[in-house]
Amino acid sequence: MCRWLVYSGTPQLLETILYKPTHSLIDQSLHSRMGVETTNGDGFGIGWYAQDADLGSPAVFRETGPAWNNRNLREIAGHVRSSLFFAHIRASTGTAVQQTNSHPFRHGRWMWMHNGAIAGFPAMRRDLCLAVDPSLFAAIEGSTDSEVMFFLALTMGLEDDPPGAVARMAGLVERTGHAHGIAAPLQMTIATTDGESVWAFRYASEGDARSLYYSSRVDSIRALHPDVSYLKELSEETRLVVSEPLGDLPGVWNEVPEHSYGVVREGADELRPFAPA
Amino acid sequence: MCRWLVYSGTPQLLETILYKPTHSLIDQSLHSRMGVETTNGDGFGIGWYAQDADLGSPAVFRETGPAWNNRNLREIAGHVRSSLFFAHIRASTGTAVQQTNSHPFRHGRWMWMHNGAIAGFPAMRRDLCLAVDPSLFAAIEGSTDSEVMFFLALTMGLEDDPPGAVARMAGLVERTGHAHGIAAPLQMTIATTDGESVWAFRYASEGDARSLYYSSRVDSIRALHPDVSYLKELSEETRLVVSEPLGDLPGVWNEVPEHSYGVVREGADELRPFAPA
Amino acid sequence: MCRWLVYSGTPQLLETILYKPTHSLIDQSLHSRMGVETTNGDGFGIGWYAQDADLGSPAVFRETGPAWNNRNLREIAGHVRSSLFFAHIRASTGTAVQQTNSHPFRHGRWMWMHNGAIAGFPAMRRDLCLAVDPSLFAAIEGSTDSEVMFFLALTMGLEDDPPGAVARMAGLVERTGHAHGIAAPLQMTIATTDGESVWAFRYASEGDARSLYYSSRVDSIRALHPDVSYLKELSEETRLVVSEPLGDLPGVWNEVPEHSYGVVREGADELRPFAPA
Amino acid sequence: MCRWLVYSGTPQLLETILYKPTHSLIDQSLHSRMGVETTNGDGFGIGWYAQDADLGSPAVFRETGPAWNNRNLREIAGHVRSSLFFAHIRASTGTAVQQTNSHPFRHGRWMWMHNGAIAGFPAMRRDLCLAVDPSLFAAIEGSTDSEVMFFLALTMGLEDDPPGAVARMAGLVERTGHAHGIAAPLQMTIATTDGESVWAFRYASEGDARSLYYSSRVDSIRALHPDVSYLKELSEETRLVVSEPLGDLPGVWNEVPEHSYGVVREGADELRPFAPA
């Protein structure tokens, strides 16, 4: 339904990642290869942490039109550098196209974005909203399943234990779905961050989950492609997680296994199994 | 916070009512005289019943920018005729400026628009949403108090007994507000219609309610102003209900009394007292 | 680059033509089969003549987002009837996405829309603008080649002799292009109307012109498809001209030959050769 | 018609200047005190130079809605720092509300913004456009007088001699206006910059020019207000030029005299007389 991208690493102009690759996210907004829809033109968003340590929360720029023709996105991407940013392009399945339905969502220092859907969400929406912490309820601004999933995860401890909270959220969604007679309620790839670590999840109640890839370690890519000068400027820690590869360079892109999640952070990254709780 | 207008009567081009009067609603979007804010530039909407009997529900055109510079509004207003239409200009008090927060709201044949506010709405939002009929909950698309009030009224019988349902909605809002420690929870002028009758309410929990006016009977205006040729084309049944008068012609505008509601319909119109139930 | 549609005939709700066919123009906005681009998401417009004889000029509703997710378009299409309307979906090749660059363009009673391009337009823009009648110059609002072509045609007599004026415009564009070293300056399918007749042109300086089709006479379609009840309501005069067929019903769609133009009007329609003058 | 602001000095978060002052530019968008219109809600723009020396041209973010409710503006303002930026809020006098008509305009490293109008511009537009260097003509994207003034100034040497070029542009506008029978063709306050110096002009062909103010030297403001801690962080070089003062602190704001221009740059700023050439 959507496509997204996480960048974490050596500070870059956003456009280096968003526009320059052969099959960049902007290109995917018109010509997605692996998505359910080839066009992702129902809004977009980016969220970035500024390089000033004293700005608590990330900047979030969200719009309702397509990413491919948005001049303001190109301006920002050409003038803002960040070492950690999210980007998302949306293909709506009927929910209103409005700024508050574009990803990423933000709460304090946290960001969240999602590709997939809760099957039968309209029928479940009330039950799921009721499970959101009452003190958070008023902060729900849009009408998407994705935002409700974020608030459920926040309710269930996202800020203390992201993998546990996402597992509990997924479990609740599945139980609620089953209670409403939905056999396979959940399709999700999710990225969330507190500005330091990034957690990326891939899961489906049934069958294949939406595609998700992560980039290889920079040193191993360099060894494969000693002639690609661009790679020399990147730290070892630099990592991308994407709905679909940004190009065809061999050895760069690895599929995130079904039912698993990865953690990107300073030090060793991790890849672990995921199951709803 | 907002300004609105109801027209019911001889079929007119929308622009005759929306643009031509000296102090038209479009003029009020820039220069409101009686509103809490002089500028109402945070979105607008119109809703009209087409003159084809077979089209069940009204057309609703809603936007996020100001009415005064919207070319599409002017085009529609210059080419569409209707015998019953609503128009609304919004001044947000912080809620997102998005299409789904612009009035009028629609459900089947019904439309609804509101000026005013529920004091302390963020804290009450969850309780009020819970009181909405579960089968209607998924149809809430925006984040305004006004839309929740509409769904509460629908839950409480709007389609069968509009004054009773609005009274019950107002009662629930006041009780919920009091439970949250809000002394004066409700400020409202509301218009609602099923395409045949229009109900317009004016109420405040405390102090003056937002301004509301209705036009005099066409025959009495004609007697006062025999030289105004425009009036000759209007049926006796023609009536306007507006947040503030569209001009200064003496004898045309009458204040809706505090704590009352009016009914505009074929046959004799009515004006009655209103109290939350 | 774009796709367009002309309807002329028995008054219809716009949605009957715009949304209901299998491969409707709205579907083409996401999945064009014959266009240079599959996605036409850079703005859209409709223009219709209201059924009131006293409204001189058509209504034009133009937007900057994609047609497929525009709720206001659906509202208008579901509530407005017309016997003559234009619709256009845009795929920009770099020119700004803004209302004044969306088609159809209007001047008095006249409308104009275009698919194609003037090769090398930026370099020729000044020369072509200088050829516009000085009294019309200030009315150019956007930055497209299409709008300049319209104003050139108006300058060259569109209102008196549409085929002649379009031929003179095309001739000027080709001469100007050649002077700028462009071998094949013009690609165009154009529709224009005064509210009574419609002229549709197909031409390219070199090679295949953009696709263009017209619907067969209603009586012949009826003879082929006696079971299609929808056809019974249509007058013999009803005609569609479209960038690509709206469906696969055999015998309905005929290609407009290269280098020709058609006239749709009360009485016998015509198809004639076209050459720049 | 519009209001604008220039900041040059110690790097600041844009929000410090755009949102925090009592009578900030954002407040002026709703409640201008000195403008021809109190509401400036027909689009806005900001342009800033990033603090990376290697990014040649400034970022320009322009929108069509009001500044006061734009969430993306607030996000950018809260996360981007700059030592030189422009901001502009627009009140249209009829010209289309579109991104390409919002200020600031940009050409390479240069930015330009304007408050005022060319009287009788529609009639003069063609003559003025013809005077634009043919190689620049195709870069005109919008339909405002302000953008044409920018391209005329570029044609007449803005990049080499800004005061001379603006004087020649103003002279041409006045001569063209007089030729069209306009007695007082020009009203302007203009700001332009190459990223290092800023030039600000105030001029009217007749009568009072639009208001324009500059801030006092930081050391003299500090002497007057030793208790304002904020001032301690500002370099001596810091300077604001604004359509109307951002607050009421005595001794801070000085009117730019009629028919003069100022230069803000490293080293001593200047204030000089201005006359069309």
UniProtKB/TrEMBL annotation, chains A, B, C, D:
Domain Glutamine amidotransferase type-2: 2-277
InterPro entries: EgtC-like, Gamma-glu_amide_hydrolase, GATase_2_dom, Ntn_hydrolases_N
Domain of life: Bacteria
Keyword entries, A-Z: Glutamine amidotransferase
Record Pfam families: GATase_4
Key word Oxidoreductase present: no
PANTHER family found in the cross-reference section: GLUTAMINE AMIDOTRANSFERASE DUG3-RELATED (PTHR43187:SF1)
Protein name: Class II glutamine amidotransferase
